[in-house]
Amino acid sequence: MQLRSLIAAALAAVLLGAAPATTRLYSAPAGNRPAGIPHPDLPYVAILPSGRIVAPVGRSIAIGANVNALALIPGGRFAVVGGSAASGGTLLRTIDTRTMQIVARVTNAGSRSEAIGGLIALHDPAMPARTILVASEARAGKIAIFAVGSEGTLAQLHPGISLPGGDPEPMHLALAESGHLLLVADDRNGRVDTIDLATRRPIASMSVGALPSGLAAFGPRIFAAGAAADASNLAIRSLDSSAVSSENIPLDAPLDGATTIGGVDPESVAIEPGGRFAYVTLAGVDRVVAVALDASPRVVDGIDLRLFANAPYGTMPTAMVPSMTGRELFVALSGLNAVAVLDASTPGVLHRLGLIPTGARPVALSLAPNDKVLFVANAEGNGVNATLERIALTKIPLERTTLSALRYARVSHLVRGNALVPPLRSGRKSDAISHVVDISLGPTYFNSTPNLRALANEFAVVGDYYADAPTSELGSQLTYSGTISPSAWLLDTFRGRRAVEAMPPDLYPRSGYIVNALARAGMSYRVYGAMLPEGPLAIGIPLLHVLHGAVGYSPKAGERASDRALATAFVAQYSREAASGNIPAYQAIELSSNNPLVQDRALGRIVEAIVKSEAWGSTAIFISPRQAIGATTADPKHSFAVIVSPYARRGFLGHAHASTASVLKTEEEILGLPALSLGDLLASDLANYFTPTLDLSVPNIRTNERMQR
């Protein structure tokens, strides 16, 4: 062991002596600044846990915990946002658009997954002098109707219109051209229901395919875009079955499970004012496509909204709204915290005009009747509250706001070659570290985890580290792909964590997860509890073929793997692979026990097996939480990460802003992999936590049985 270690040290010194050419590296603009609101006088300008900055244009107001939907009351004096309350249950807020103050509140107590899915405001067909607000309550499976008072008050008129069929999940809403027929997208059952608002009764239902996320109507036709296991499509149906035949327009080719892991994730549909084209946002591939609505409907054009040519996906276009004239199309980019302004003056042909900065994760848009004011509902707003943003379009210097939106998302600089942790996109892998182990933790705390504390005291600690995700399941998405898709957010909001774990393949990130990148690169890997949903859907297609034979431990159907079982399986498998010299390049272990001591003991056993092996000299272990755990009272997302490696800077406590995607980015740099998404591309890496000086000393790990309890 000692001789081999000396040889390894000498070889590392030779390998790390060479420095390749410079590479342009993207990083988060936070630098060394912590997440939060830097200036109390500017409550909506914030540094996000991701390290990006939000500085929304115009005027904003805090709404609450989460928003999903937005509607302007006819006339434009009031806007209503809908979502979920922090304590659970549905939330509605009416905002006076002149003063940007909340004038009415409606909150119905309930569970975390009860939320408003869609909103529409109109003159009541049953009493035209009255204005009503229609809201879809997804968890309750019904449509609620409220009377809107002259001062914006909301009074429920109807106990709720129940939808037909079993376990309906009403989400997106649209009005037929007649103005009295409400169209309701039932996500769970893959259909559109029609409700006569004059009688408050459902009158028809038609199948449109799985997860109809986008919905619009023009003349007698209904347009619903949705995801599917084979390929996404735009379903065209008719309110008058004798007028127009049903058609399904493909929006994507079937997934191949190698280069295309996830689908295009259609999010919204808009019809240009002349009715000749439909526009569909495809969040999975950063694109808006135009569909000709002539006798042979088909995709005829589109526009790429990626950050730059051939960039990894991640701007995530979601909601959109065309101007009344049809000359402009406004598109919410939830992955860039901006609205893209597109030139649509030639119907069906789109061109970029610029960007407008918004709050964090814009999810809904509405235009004032005169096209002069744009309203944006931001689900994460200033990082603390969801917000509504009012933007006066006549006062927007678009060139300047475009540069600001880009500056808030990333900084770029040239970096010298680093043979230990090569910069992303350098085309190199580490010359010294050939094994990466990712250990993600459930809720845990330093004061009750002696092994974690010991490792933190001895190795490198990322002190200003932020776990961006609110739940463990969304944290897994972020940990292994660098992003959380709009559909994953919605599944978590409306159906809970099990729905995220069993997410259909079309909703995976387009480039997949790190195991898919490793498979494409022909590199070995093994997972223990990572990326594996509970129950009979043990491994989701198309991950099945890349994970086949690479699962170190999988729980029985309906069970969650215990940390002790995962650690036991890892130690046994690792010992066999170390003996044969076939340790995988990448391994992932998810620990999740609610007992910090059980989790800590499993961590100790895993790390002990690694540091006592011959592969210790070429290994980097990343230990970080999957979700916000409230490690500090100031910010529940402020957490920690520990890097354990012979090349880690011993006893180093860093204060550069880092996030969940920072770990993934550094792992990709070490292994020579490309960025999976915009999230990891623009995150700050952790290269500064490594040193070329090799130190093979072994940490003191406690694995006694008493810690099992």
Helix-strand blueprint:
Blueprint: H1 2-15, E1 23-27, E2 46-47, E3 53-54, E4 59-64, E5 66-72, E6 78-84, E7 90-96, E8 101-108, E9 116-123, E10 131-137, E11 142-148, E12 154-162, E13 170-175, E14 181-186, E15 191-196, E16 201-207, E17 212-218, E18 221-226, E19 233-238, E20 247-250, E21 266-271, E22 277-282, E23 287-292, E24 298-304, E25 317-322, E26 328-333, E27 338-346, E28 349-357, E29 360-367, E30 373-381, E31 386-392, H2 398-409, E32 411-415, E33 435-441, H3 450-458, E34 460-466, H4 472-481, H5 486-494, H6 497-501, H7 514-521, E35 525-528, H8 543-547, E36 551-553, H9 563-580, E37 586-590, H10 596-611, E38 619-625, E39 638-644, E40 653-654, E41 658-659, H11 660-671, H12 678-682
Parallel strand pairs: 33-37, 33-38, 34-40, 34-41, 35-36, 35-37
Antiparallel strand pairs: 1-32, 2-3, 4-31, 5-6, 6-7, 7-8, 9-10, 10-11, 11-12, 13-14, 14-15, 15-16, 17-18, 18-19, 19-20, 21-22, 22-23, 23-24, 25-26, 26-27, 27-28, 29-30, 30-31, 34-39, 38-39
| Overall outline | elongated
Helical percent range? 10-25%
Reported for the largest beta sheet, the result is: 9 strands, mixed
Secondary structure tally: strands: 41
Q: Could you explain the architecture of this structure?
A:
There is one protein chain. The chain is an alpha+beta fold and 709 residues long. Helix content is 17%, strand content 35%. Helix 4 runs parallel beside helix 11 (660-671) and helix 9 (563-580) packs parallel to helix 10. The radius of gyration is 26 Å and the shape is elongated. It starts with a helix and ends in a 27-residue tail after the last helix.
